[in-house]
Amino acid sequence: MSRVRGLLVIGVAAMLTCLALTASADALTLGNTTVPSGSSAQLCSGAGGTSLIQTETDAGYDYVVPAGGGAITSWSFNTTGATVGAPYELIVVRPNAGAYTVVGTDSELVPATPPLIQTYTLSAPIAVQAGDLLGVFLSSTSAVDCYWLAGSLTTSDVFIPADGTPAVGASLTTPSPPAPERVLNLSVNLVQSEDVALSQQMLANTIAVGGTSAFLLSVTSAGPGALPVTVTDTVPAGLTIDSVSAGTGSCTVSGQVVSCVVAGAPATIAVIVSAKGAGSYANTATASTVVTDPNQTNNSASATLEVTAAAVAPQQLHLAALAKLPAAEAKFVIRALGCKVGKITHRTSKSIRKGDVISTSPRAGITLTTGEKIAIVVSSGKPKKKPHRSP
To answer: Which of 205, 178, 197, 209 is nearest to 309 (CA)?
Structure first.
């Protein structure tokens, strides 16, 4: 078995006709972790730093991001024969005037009891564009099979030197002569589009001057729902932004502009505001994602807050807005409004998915005051089927 030292292995496809569709029509599988017919696995370990870029035409082994780009949400590696604890790293590079700029990485270790194909879901998907190349970097302590050699392969590879572990922004250069009949042991899941939608509700439609309400922004997705979503809300002048909460992400406030990035859909953002003066305040927010959105007509949502000069009845929290939300999201909205999370119970549900809110107590429309407790009923999933008994 040949040994290649400190390899950064990057696959570049010359043909894009063999991209395999995943279960989602908006996602592709690039690369392959199946051993080609008649080929053998090759170990990559040792000291030094060398990188390998593949230019290959073997059917089903394509490693270039196609037109439209997208985001890599997970990657897989065939760990057969790998040493437990050996480090290896997904790397994505972008051709740049004869060099290759590193645009994304993910480091992992071979687990103690790996399955044949080890798959890693990225906590932060890697945004890519057409022409970006996929690869794996192996450090001096790596002991894994990083590529397949010979057999049915007709690949021609190009080696380039890498000085240490490539970091995002690093540049790789200087190709060396091709090496034939190799293909990379790697595949990635590439999401190319996602239909993100945004809705908005008021938790108190009418307040008095000096009172408090909230714009409740709900992010949903037609699938896959795993990509970051950016929500931007320009709060009308005349309203003071008291606080912003995003249960699955983070927010910043600059003047009247709220910008939040949530990890995926569904997600909820609560923008808590107070009123400086009487009037009608129309609030519009928009949502966007890192990939193509095929339907942008549902990416914005508006709601209007009415502020009166005279005192109004205690504000009503429209708790129906919490139904069907993940329990964690409902909890942070309740706390953001100055109320307390009460007793949490679980109940089976045929229509509400596991972990989402079925109902609240007090029920929707009941007038609440600051500090009151709101109990939540959370779905524990569908009822178990009763075993069939013969008569």
So the answer is: 209
Residue 137 corresponds to which tokens in the numbers above? 């970097």
Pairwise pLDDT comparison (9 vs 270), residue with the higher score: 270
Omega before 236 cis (within 30°)?
no
Helix intervals (H) in the chain: 327-336
Q: Give me the residue spans of the domains in the chain.
A: 3-191, 193-315, 316-391
CATH architecture of the domain 316-391 equals 2-Layer Sandwich (3.30)
**DSSP structural state of residue 298:** G
Look at residue 344 in the predicted model and tell me its pLDDT: 94
pLDDT tens digits, one per residue of 91-129:
888 888 877 888 999 988 888 876 788 899 988 889 898
Could you tell me the CA-to-CA distances from 320 to 221, 316, 325, 331, 362 in Å, in that order? 20, 11, 10, 14, 10
| CA pair distance 218, 60, nearest whole angstrom | 40
From residue 217, how far is each of 21, 203, 280 by CA, in Å?
Answer: 33, 11, 19
- For 193-315, CATH gives 2.60.40.1510
User: Looking at per-residue confidence, does 350 or 253 come out higher?
Assistant: 253
CATH of 3-191, picked from 3.30.1380, 2.60.120, 1.10.1740, 3.40.50, is 2.60.120
pLDDT per residue as tens digits for the range 123-165? 888 989 888 888 888 776 677 777 777 777 766 555 554 555 6
* Cβ(219)–Cβ(231) below 8 Å: yes
Give rounded-to-5 percent helix, strand, coil for the chain.
5, 55, 45
User: Closest by alpha carbon to 31, among 83, 91, 85?
Assistant: 91
Q: Is the pLDDT of residue 2 over 50?
A: no
Which phi and psi (to 5°) does residue 330 adopt?
-60, -40
